[in-house]
Amino acid sequence: MSAAETQPARTVLAWQRTGLGVLAVAGLLLRSAAVHGRPAVLALAAVVAASGLVVLGVLTRRRAGSAQRAAGRAGDARAPRLAAVATGLVVLCAVCALAADLVVRTG
């Protein structure tokens, strides 16, 4: 197998890892909400979980399609808009995690 054949698969796996990482943060926030009894943290966990599902369910599929098409025609495989959206969702995840930490600490 050449690098051109395996690159789309590696790209999809990277996007899946990103989505799963965001979902893992949502799980940690959910646990924190249960342990500390904070409904605000539960709401933040829901936002983070939705972000992770968007990355996994929508962005990964679109990125896989664009990577396959680019590999088939030996064209440009970049997807700056998808990358910007994914980056924004990961930043949203981080902001929600920080906000949840503040909610728990300030009690």
TrEMBL record:
The keyword Mitochondrion does not apply. It is a multi-pass membrane protein. Keywords: Membrane, Transmembrane, Transmembrane helix. Pfam families: DUF202. It is found in: Endomembrane system. The keyword Transmembrane helix applies. InterPro entries: DUF202 (IPR003807). Residues 7-62 form the DUF202 domain. The chain crosses the membrane at residues 12-34, 40-61, 82-104. This is DUF202 domain-containing protein. It comes from Modestobacter muralis.
